[in-house]
């Protein structure tokens, strides 16, 4: 599912217009992004948690040349699914 399909699904389920649904999706992604930039986390009980994680510097290999390269440390976004979402995906609850 891409963004357009998500907007359509939200519009259909909520009765909102596609324009209003797109604003809602954009507002959600902006709010999550803003919080993650502050190194915070967004927890949606029953769905999951968006947070950041630090990745240490490491060495890697260029797959084309085989040359060793240094990969710098980075802060990366991470999503951890909640138990209720995992159960629904695995068919344990309806």
UniProtKB/TrEMBL annotation:
This is DNA-binding protein. One of its GO terms (molecular function) is DNA binding. The lineage of its organism: Bacteria, Bacillati, Bacillota, Clostridia, Lachnospirales. One of its GO terms (biological process) is gene expression. SMART domains: BHL (SM00411). Belongs to the bacterial histone-like protein family. SUPFAM superfamilies: IHF-like DNA-binding proteins. It comes from the Bacteria. Keywords: DNA condensation, DNA-binding. Gene3D superfamilies: IHF-like DNA-binding proteins. It holds the Pfam family Bac_DNA_binding. InterPro entries: Hist_DNA-bd (IPR000119), Histone-like_DNA-bd_CS (IPR020816), IHF-like_DNA-bd_dom_sf (IPR010992). GO terms for cellular component: cytosol; DnaA-HU complex; HU-DNA complex. It comes from Butyrivibrio hungatei.
